[in-house]
Amino acid sequence: MDFPPPNNRSERGLDVSGSADHIQALSSPRRVATLTALARRDESMRVEDLARHVRALERETDVTAVSRREQRRVQTSLQHAHLPALAARSLVDWEHGNDWVALHPDVSSETLRETVGEALPTASTRHIRTLSDPRRRQVLELVEECETPLSIDTLARRVASLETGGGSSSPPAQTMDRVRISLVHSHLPALDDAGLLAYDRETGTVTSTALSRVGNE
């Protein structure tokens, strides 16, 4: 059974603002949100609870508004990518397979709150960055036009048709395949993470959200 790490943080704290290694860690918005959530609680957290708080910070909403699906997806990314990277830089106290995580004992939560507070992007900043890609803007427009969920195949065909200027004719199969791969592995997850649309990986469908209209304005 895993137990929470002891809360014996050093009074002097670790300066996380200057080293290149720490700056690299703070270049990831999700890692910044992770450190922010831990600094605000200033105590050990279960990874599943941390994932819920991280997603709430990313969406700028209350933790009660985070769905179980969102929580599981964020938890997976924390366990496989972000927590190992933060632990390797001695910013968090966590070992692979442990259900608990805390700030590293040498990290001052007060200093960290000041540092990551400046690095945490606002929702509007994330939306601008996400929508800098023209294909993502095209996807949002197509999704917003539909009152019912779109299948990935239908969405890929419409995107490919618009980009190739094919009009009502079907685009080449190879073009559709390339578009579909980019949607599944890059654009749809990014738009879903930003809350600009809802991408259901299990059913392979995409649905508009209230924010999709805002993103296109």
UniProtKB/TrEMBL annotation:
The UniProt record lists the DUF7344 domain at 24-101, 130-207
- Tell me which stretches of the chain form a coiled coil: none
Q: Where is this region: Disordered?
A: 1-23
Give the Pfam families listed for this entry. DUF7344
Q: Which domain of life is it from?
A: Archaea
Q: Which Gene3D superfamilies match?
A: Winged helix-like DNA-binding domain superfamily/Winged helix DNA-binding domain (1.10.10.10)
Q: Which InterPro entries match?
A: DUF7344, WH-like_DNA-bd_sf
Show which residues constitute the signal peptide: none
What is the protein named?
DUF7344 domain-containing protein
Species name for this entry?
Halovivax ruber (strain DSM 18193 / JCM 13892 / XH-70)
